[in-house]
Amino acid sequence: MNYPSSVKIVEVGPRDGLQNEKLCLTVQEKLWLIDALSQCGLRHIEAGSFVSPSKVPQMDNTDEVFLKLKHFEKPVYSALVPNTSGMKRAIACQVNEVAVIVSASEAFSKNNLNCSIAQSVERITQIASLATQFDIPLRGYVSCAVDCPYEGAVSPATVLVLCESLLAAGCKEISLGDTLGTATAIKTSRLLSQVLSRISADKLALHMHNTYGQALANVLVGLQHGIATFDSSVAGLGGCPFAKGATGNVATEDLVYLLNDMGIETGVNLSTLTLVGDKISKLLQRSNESKVGKAMIAKQRSH
């Protein structure tokens, strides 16, 4: 099996992770988290989203976070933007990459994004126009790429069409999201076989939630299909406010542990990362969802 020699990890804890936590972090707490993740060697960090605070109050201080991030050493600090209003805020904050999202399920799109899939694609086209004007790279998400909480199983053919629409709009990379965390190795293989029939692996990423404990198995399937970009969340933070019961992304610690053992380069210091995962879990008053993180912290304390 020819696995990638290196993998790009997109750390989504400060956005996808925090958006579903009960406690809202202050600007200084978020800046600590983002900087600490950067110090671990993570070079692609999704630091917030320019969404309505009434819908996602955990992201209320995103503008201030990004304005202060300008003074940090610069990895890629990206932000999710849902519409042109959010994009204009991102431009004002000098964000150096933006992410847009479309759902592969019509019902989820209407409940989550408050528009149809077609309207969502049109919004992305408008965002892309602004991104081109200000020379800001664009990343795309396809949510509910496997299952939808309202419609059930999602057709891989539908996901492929949406991926092609996002690429045509100007997205340089498409992250396929198992929003509910219900994907299995078989489902992920079926999805990738369909999408890779017309799109090259270097344009794709996987965004696997771990609700059913299958995220690492799905990552391995991705690696076997040539995928070399994976989204993850420190300490397994998060979930989706619009998908009841869904837990956080695959924990970054667990992902790095797997890749290290396979001899795949990530540039991430796992020992330091486990300390960050432990601290942010305590700060949020929640359990650490990283199996590797908990095991390594327990081992350190026993010595």
UniProtKB/TrEMBL annotation:
InterPro entries attached to this UniProt entry: Aldolase_TIM, HMGL, PYR_CT
Annotated Gene Ontology MF terms?
A: lyase activity
Which segments constitute the Pyruvate carboxyltransferase domain? 7-274
Q: Which UniProt keywords apply?
A: Lyase, Metal-binding
UniProt entry tagged with the keyword Thylakoid: no
Tell me if Lyase is a UniProt keyword of this record: yes
Please give the family membership noted in the entry: Belongs to the HMG-CoA lyase family.
Q: Which PANTHER family match?
A: HYDROXYMETHYLGLUTARYL-COA LYASE
Name of the protein in its database record: Hydroxymethylglutaryl-CoA lyase
